[in-house]
Each structure stands twice: as structure tokens, then as C-alpha cells.
Amino acid sequence: MSLIVQKYGGTSVADLAHIRNVAKRVIGYKKRGHDVVVVVSAMAGETDRLIGLADEISPAHDEREHDALVSTGEQVSSALLAMTIIEMGTKTRSLQGHQVSIGTDNGYMRARITDVDVKKIGKLLKSGHVVVVAGFQGIDPEGNITTLGRGGSDTTAVALAAKLKADECEIFTDVDGVYTADPRLCSDAKKIHNISYEEMIELASMGSKILHIRAVEFAMKYDVTLHVRSSLSDKEGTIVTSEDIEMEKMVVTAVAHDSNQAKITLVGVPDRPGVAYRIFEPVSAVGISVDMIIQNVSQEGFTDLTFTVRKTDYRKTLELVKPVCDGLGAEDVLGDPDIAKVSVVGVGMRSHAGAATTMFEALSKAGININMISTSEIKISCIINERYTELAVRVLHDAFKLKKKRAKAVKKPVRKRKKN
Known about the structure:
about 35% helix, VC0802-like, single chain, Carbamate kinase, 14 helices, alpha/beta, about 425 residues, eight-stranded mixed sheet, six-stranded antiparallel sheet
């Protein structure tokens, strides 16, 4: 008998028909002798609806009450799924984050898990129950409800799998795995059967919405193997696990893109100690993440500083840095929200040279100008004009020979016509 933790996203529990489909799948696992813990997200669109209601009251609404509100989406879906499984004849119990309990810090809207108590889950499993847990939520030291940020149900599932020492953690989504590029942009993208934690973290950080980055980090830390697959079929998906020799044979595993990017350039900034801190401190204080940073060579005591943030944070970031730059006597503050980031990712880059050359050559031949470049051991990212995003993904996918192999057409023998 195996212990399996399954997570179903919002599209998998979008309505009662989808919930019944999930219930049948869960019962199938139970009938095959497995212990099953199920983590669910809110029904598709529900979290956005609740946030919309809060925004109507005030765009700057209280964060504690925000978490108390949006966490109810998972309470609804977990209860509905438990009711459905019970109706189909299998013992089931739903639990909210505070009932498990999933302990977090008090960082409302983006809390981090600090501990998980699985005693109650263990007792229910021993008594033959399927346990359905509301994802995305926890409880802080003062007993307040907290939420883990968008995609946080993935992290809930991985944390439970780690604590329970589950045999497998399956992440069910509306796609059947991780692909070498977004299939919506690359029709010849192929499914990746095995991918390393590090590669998946890089893809998640660059716009891939298949897995939440903190969930993958958690899985890598506690060596939890993830299986990303579709809730609409029984096909094998993508296994996210430790790096192996086979993974290193491929120079590049996938091409990623992120259009939620904006660029800000500070012109003529004084080049002296403490300036960078003064610029970025108010940005980090409000929880805005800065991605790429490039500083030009200093000339006559002044320099230009360029950095990127999420497009959704663009206006707010401009509001924060302009007063600082005025106080520093900077020449100007320029912004460009019409950019995108394209990246190639692969653990094989550690042992193979030439990935950067191949990338730059492919973009050059396509007439795509590179504005900024960032690298790591297993990733190369370029900032380009947003209108070239789709073209860039395709040419890079071709350049690194990531296309799926097409089956060869079999010629049918030509039948000779009988003579009359």
C-alpha cells in the first residue's frame, strides 16, 4: 500500500461535473489499495471573485481580513469534494489549514510554512478515510488565518507529502505535463518526461505557471518527487526529481518566456556607496521583487542603472523611485512596460559550452534586438521587445533542436489496375 498526496487545481474542480471526475479518480486510487490525501484549490475564478469584492470596498483593504476572505474558496471546494466522495460510498473527511494544522509566519497574502502537524491526518488515514485538505492556507502563531500566495496549494501538497513521507506527490492541472516551450506558441513543443528541480525552479521563476516556485523549492529541500499530470486523462506526465546523468546530456531542456515584465532606467545616478540601497529599499519594503539589474560603467562620477520588475508592479515602482532619484539629483527616470523575457534552461549548460552563442545567433538572425542579458549556471535570459516574444520562443526552440519528432509517413503500395 502506498501513500499518495494529490493536488487538484482550480480548473480541475471548476464545477460539480469536474469535482465528480476528481472524486472518481480519488476513489479509484483508494480501491487499488492506496492511502490518499487530496489537496484542492478554490474553484476556477473564485479567488479572483473574492478579491474583486474586497477591492470594491477598498483597493488597500486590510491584509488580515483579505486572507480570512479569500481562504473561503478552498473551504468550499474541499467540502464539496468530500461530500461527493462520501456520496459515492467512500469514507472521507475534509480539513481546513488550521485543522491540520499548517503553521505559517504572519506574512499575510504571502505567508511561509513553518511547520505541519499531520497527527490528525494520520489518524484519519488509519481509520480508512480519504483526507481532503484545503490548500493555499495556514494559521499563524496568533491563530489568524493566512494564505500562501497565488499557487500556494502546490506548496501545501508538497509540505504534506514531505511531512507524511508520501510515496508520491501528484500535481493535477489542466495540462498533461511540462513542455519544451509553451505549446500555444510552439505547436511542435514536446512533453518533457523528466526534469530536475533546479530546471523547474528556473522555469517557474520565468513565467511558467505549471508549478509554484516555492513548492518546487520545498520539494527539492525535502526530496519529494513530483508528478505533474492532467486531471482529464490517465496519461503519464512529467516527473520533477533530482538531477541525473541523462538530464545533463541535453544542453537546453526548455525555452521559457515571461511577458509580465517592465524595465526602468535611472539616468545619471551618482556613483557612490549607498545609492543602490536608497533606490531599492523602498521597493523591497512593499514586497516588489526586482529581477534583472544592470549598471553601466561610471563616467565622471555618474552612472545609469537599469532593472526589471513585474509589469503589474511597474507604476508603483516608478512612484517609489522617482522621489528618491530627485533627491539624489539623478538626470531622469525612464520606463518601458513593453518588454518580455525569453530564457533557455538546462542543467547541461554546466558541462557544454556554446549555449549563449547559439541563443544570441538565433535571435540575431531573426532580427530581434537584446536589451539586457542575465545568466546563471543553467539559464540564460534576454530582455527583448514584447512584440517579438512569440518569434523569439520559436527560433530558440528550433536553434536548440527541441522539436518533437514527427512520425515518418508510410507509403502505401500502389495497387495496379487490372486490365480489362
